[in-house]
Amino acid sequence: MNARKKESFFWDKQRETVSIAELKSLQLAKLRESVGFAAEHSGLYKKRKKLSGHDADFHSLDEFSKKIPFTTKEDLLTSELYENLCVPKKELVEVHSSSGTSAKPVYSFLTKQDIQTGSEYLARTWHMQGIRKESTFAMLASYGLFSAGLLNHYAIQQIGAFVIPIGGSSALKTLGILGEFSVDSCAAVASYYPYVIALAKQNNIRPNDLGLRHIIAGGEPFSENQRRYVEKEFNAVMYDQYGLCEINTGIAGECAEKNGLHILADYVYPEIVDMTNGKALPEDQEGELVLTTFHKEASPLVRYRTGDITCISYKPCPCGRTMPRISRIKRRVTDTLFYKGIKIEKPYVAKCMEGLRDYLNPYIWQMELNSDAGRDEAVLKIVLEQKKGDNALDHITTSFQKNFDFKIKIRTFTADELARLGNSKLKSFLDNRNK
Q1: pLDDT digits over 283-340, tens only?
Q2: How many structural domains are present in the chain?
Q3: How far apart are CA 242 and CA 128, in angstroms?
Q4: Phi first, then psi: what are they for 337, rounded to 5°?
Q5: Long-range contacts from 310-315, C-beta under 8 angstroms, 24+ separation
Q6: Which helix (H) or strand (E) holds 292?
Q7: Which helix or strand (DSSP H or E) is residue 55 part of?
Q8: What angle in degrees, to the nearest 10, is found between the helix axes of 390-403 and 346-354?
Q9: Residue 1 placed within a domain
Q10: Which one of 333, 352, 376 terminates a domain?
Q11: Adjacent-strand bridge partners of 136
């Protein structure tokens, strides 16, 4: 491979191949600046967290982890709207919110500089995943307050690609646009791809005829089986990407090696902590991801507990990048339901679904817990494989009864329910018992 082609792998080679020693020195300096900025300008950190300028006087990354308190989603949910705002309101140009899995959304405010700086860093992730100036890219994620659409749109424009903002269009319209514009790259929440494949087949459209080459999936965990299924159907490469509204979208992504997600560790500082006692964990040990923002003017966050379970590695990657890699997110702290004293975990349900792939689509499902007249019930909604009938439902019901210690009703999604799923995150667990 010639040097020029190797060089094209990188968006910013100097930053992407910085030595670990230089990176950690840079992180320490940026952490001091971030803590000092939040302590001076944020009501949340000055009043609630009791931070002062003296707290920014730490001398190592380890001291930072021991000295500075966590920020939680509960902190943000119980804050006043502008409590964490660190600039005059007149300097704000945009706001985004979390996807609304909680009753109240969490808002992230942005200045013009926040967007410009974020786009420069996020461009590295998209370039690493195959997006180039000559790409025709379709953003399938929702726009509006949902951060994934618009903020990633800006970053991809930074590369110079032609971006088609499909957003919340119907799946059939999306399929038409992908073909009409000869789109070669796209991004969506992970669960959208199995959904659009199912709809394409129902309408006699062959997904691999669309000519996609690069498929980026984010917003939610997905299995390797799901990746292989999507890649086979589209005849394309599928990359995992990670981000969250509170910090920024697209802050980590897989390279061609697919051996973890390179995190922009000069844009955010990643830690892995023990979920129970909060102590920082060493490299390669699984725990909760905690992030601290650098460069964020409007609403910075210090030691924010993401609720995502992963581990981190600083070992060299064959791709040549030295940015650390987090393992693929397989679950969240909240991916658990309790029903009649029994713990239900999302990865276990997903594994059971994949064992029934001959009878159903294992990647589109939803478990509802309902309460009717004081009696609780569990309902699992599924999508049957084509040409599978009542016998399939009986088989699926019997299989789940063997795997779970409670009665569960199986029913199929209606056409209207499927249409409403659209390209937003598929909420696998719905607990309606308190509604």
Answers
A1: 999 999 999 999 999 999 999 999 899 999 999 999 999 999 999 987 776 666 767 6
A2: 2
A3: 13
A4: -120, 150
A5: 310/272, 310/286, 311/272, 311/281, 311/283, 311/284, 311/285, 311/286, 311/287, 312/263, 312/270, 312/272, 312/283, 312/284, 313/260, 313/283, 313/284, 314/20, 314/283
A6: strand 287-293
A7: none
A8: 140
A9: no
A10: 333
A11: 162
